[in-house]
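discrete fold record:
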Amino acid sequence: MHKRGLLFYVKIYLKIIKQDIKSKMTYRADFIISNFGMIIQQAAGFITFWLIFQNFPSVAGWKYEEMLFFYGFSLIALTPMQCFFDNNWFLQQKVYSGDFIKYCLRPINIFFYFISEIFDLKGLGLLTAGIAILAYSWVQLEIAFSFLILLILIVNLFAASLFLIGIMNIAAAVCFWTVTGEIAMVFAQQFQGYARYPIAIFNRVLRFLFTFIIPIAFVSYYPSLVFLRPDNIPLLTWLSPLIGVLFFMLSYFIWMKGAKNYNGTGS
């Protein structure tokens, strides 16, 4: 791996993003339609929750507004992965076509070079829907707001995003060793839907799975407890930012290990 300073990569990335956005904005109708579609899709989830709670006052002790809080929180946490790491979906195609070799020949970090190629503007629609749902639930639950609370919210959202990105990085890296990379990506994506629910509603096996194997519980459940259950915050909630950083680093190591394996074998 070629070592460069952080400032170097920030400058390069901003230039890449600027050009990518310019190229995509030449098709403004596509931008508007895709983002509108994303908002409508998430609105459908909002309506689904509403319909469920017309018949049930709560689910395992969680109210309608609290479930919406989880939902909105998870959508915002998903935004960085959607915007900045969407190229992972094309990794298998590039690996097996041989096109991935170009990323191994430039004097910059392979992971950075590959990931920075795509900025998915649909993530902005996801962000809009997430903020709207989270803000609505926040007001309905009458949660206090201050600069400190905002800071905690930002830190927890950042940590939650790292878990989602890490899960997809690991799933994408599978293609460096097997032909099932795309299946692993689809499998990992399916689990993202569980992030919008409190793990307390699942049985013990799933709670263990979503906490220690596929850490979906850290995407919205544990970080949201700071705001929803401030008098009963578990240790895992406070450890979420640290665990998120470590998990992302693990996913990066696995991804880079696979990339180096590809570079070494030339396959």
Summary: Residues 9 and 15 are 10 Å apart (CA to CA). The mean pLDDT is 86.
